[in-house]
């Protein structure tokens, strides 16, 4: 499976904070926002990842993450010149996807929950059709809304409905088989000239190949689209980290646990940030995992 992070847009609701920097580079507690979606892809075991952003912001992401090799990843970059809809990620990233399935995640989506990595691993295996993830919200008119029957079967998807049939919003995490590339190429753009992800999902639904996974109690899907929600997301992460004694979306820790890097490489990554609590946390992880004699 290949991975794509869509981190474009102008984030006008966060102006003036985002006038000169991508929203996905703003901090959520102690780390850049893009660490959170990147951590989700890593937890699936995805190591070949494309980050799509604006012409101005791609160099900033490259400066932050490089080619990903320090984390045992391969990270490439592509430009989205103008907002063209979420599904445009599949036309921009067609060569990156190749003949594989793909996990697409929006760069401003934060997920956290008990056994979340186990759920992701299970649902990302042998994807046939598409796998969508739903979460209950208080304001369903703002989202793409899923209607399910008593058995959990997906019945309909409606984008920002005036009269929602449920409060189950479709989140910004999607798994697709390779058909998504051809489906997107044959989509008719919306009146705004965008390729809508809901139209892609409707094609799969019409084929009987759209599956919805409901993220119930114990899971958090956090919004970062406004100053208030961004601050609340940071408070949530800070509270959970302090209570549990572990860090959410620590890329170095995930790379170590997944076997992408060894303890020595993890330790060296921590040393670069040793003046911060985050860096010392990474160094402690590496020590616990066992360093070579030259670094211990």
Automatic annotation (TrEMBL):
It holds the Pfam family NTP_transferase. Gene3D superfamilies: Spore Coat Polysaccharide Biosynthesis Protein SpsA, Chain A. The keyword Nucleotidyltransferase applies. Its cofactor is Mg(2+). Its EC number is 2.7.7.24. Residues 2-236 form the Nucleotidyl transferase domain. Keywords: Magnesium, Metal-binding, Nucleotidyltransferase, Transferase. It catalyses: dTTP + alpha-D-glucose 1-phosphate + H(+) = dTDP-alpha-D-glucose + diphosphate. It comes from the Bacteria. PANTHER family: GLUCOSE-1-PHOSPHATE THYMIDYLYLTRANSFERASE (PTHR43532), GLUCOSE-1-PHOSPHATE THYMIDYLYLTRANSFERASE 1 (PTHR43532:SF1). Catalyzes the formation of dTDP-glucose, from dTTP and glucose 1-phosphate, as well as its pyrophosphorolysis. Belongs to the glucose-1-phosphate thymidylyltransferase family. This is Glucose-1-phosphate thymidylyltransferase. The gene is rfbA_1.
């Amino acid at each position: 499976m290949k991975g794509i992070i869509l981190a474009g847009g102008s984030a006008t609701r966060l102006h003036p904070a985002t006038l000169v920097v991508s929203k996905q580079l703003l901090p959520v507690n102690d780390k850049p926002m893009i660490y959170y979606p990147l951590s989700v892809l890593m937890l699936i075991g995805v190591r070949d990842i494309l980050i799509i952003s604006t012409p101005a912001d791609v160099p900033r992401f490259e400066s932050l993450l490089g080619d990903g090799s320090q984390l045992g990843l391969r990270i490439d970059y592509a430009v989205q010149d103008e907002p063209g809809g979420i599904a445009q990620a599949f036309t921009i990233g067609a060569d990156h996807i190749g003949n594989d399935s793909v996990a697409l995640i929006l760069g401003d989506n934060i997920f956290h929950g008990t056994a979340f990595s186990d759920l992701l691993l299970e649902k990302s295996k042998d994807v046939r059709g598409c796998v969508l993830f739903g979460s209950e919200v208080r304001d369903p008119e703002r989202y793409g809304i899923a209607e399910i029957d008593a058995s959990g079967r997906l019945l309909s998807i409606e984008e920002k409905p005036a009269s929602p049939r449920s409060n189950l919003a479709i989140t910004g995490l999607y798994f697709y088989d390779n058909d998504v590339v051809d489906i997107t190429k044959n989509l008719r753009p919306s009146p705004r000239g965008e390729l809508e992800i809901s139209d892609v999902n409707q094609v799969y639904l019409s084929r009987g190949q759209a599956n919805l996974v409901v993220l119930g109690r114990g899971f958090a899907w956090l919004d970062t689209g406004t100053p208030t929600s961004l601050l609340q997301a940071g408070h949530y992460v800070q509270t959970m980290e302090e209570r549990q004694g572990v860090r959410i979306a620590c890329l170095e820790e995930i790379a170590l646990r997944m076997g992408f890097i060894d303890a020595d490489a993890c330790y060296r990554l921590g040393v670069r940030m040793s003046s911060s609590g985050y860096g010392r946390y990474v160094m402690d992880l590496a020590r616990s995992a066992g360093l070579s004699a030259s670094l211990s």
